[in-house]
Amino acid sequence: xxxxxxxxxxxxxxxxxxxxxxxxxxxxxxxxxxxxxxxxxxxxxxxxxxxxxxxxxxxxxxxxxxxxxxxxxxxxxxxxxxxxxxxxxxxxxxxxxxxxxxxxxxxxxxxxxxxxxxxxxxxxxxxxxxxxxxxxxxxxxxxxxxxxxxxxxxxxxxxxxxxxxxxxxxxxxxxxxxxxxxxxxxxxxxxxxxxxxxxxxxxxxxxxxxxxxxxxxxxxxxxxxxxxxxxxxxxxxxxxxxxxxxxxxxxxxxxxxxxxxxxxxxxxxxxx
Length: 272
Hints:
Layout: H1 21-35, H2 37-47, H3 52-79, H4 85-95, H5 110-134, H6 138-169, H7 173-185, H8 190-200, H9 209-220, H10 226-240, H11 247-270
């Protein structure tokens, strides 16, 4: 486990007057995904059943991911006492399923799976850093700071295992780039969209993946500052095996900021 627990958080500092209702909707969705870490643990233990060095780390990672979800859910219930975290999570679990019967990575190799995990941790660490810097609510700022630090550490964990797996799987830089790009593209798949739907929509409301993906994104994308994107690009480049700083990072940072801002503007006009 990391160096904090739910009891570490100073819940008494919660200030309802500083809750941003738009951020709150995304926090509810994020709580769903983080709390679902147990299913990812099942999947990873099956895919890496022959790798005891990694399996030994999986449960600690799962425990921390679940704790993230519990912390975010507890904060969301403070911000919206009418919200039922457990009911929303049950709804999410009923409608979104991971490939728990898989015995091989959906990425084609164990190195590919580690590459994908590095991309996920890059995304979460940068997002919680952006949330920390954007929110004025002191408890959420503390929670996001703790989670972001955990996610940076998780990236390092998966990166070290990636390096070890590459000695066996010999995944080229080009192949790592393909895996990384495919995992980035999955940020617009059903997981976050369904989490947003389960967390924020009333029972019986129709599910529209595109609508709810955009609803999440239009609240998340404007939070990013150049420093968040620059650090994320450095982490992606490092996992691919390229120089994390320099001209390529600068180019990708500019492209990433353009993408986030253009999508945010587009989704804001469309409304969600």
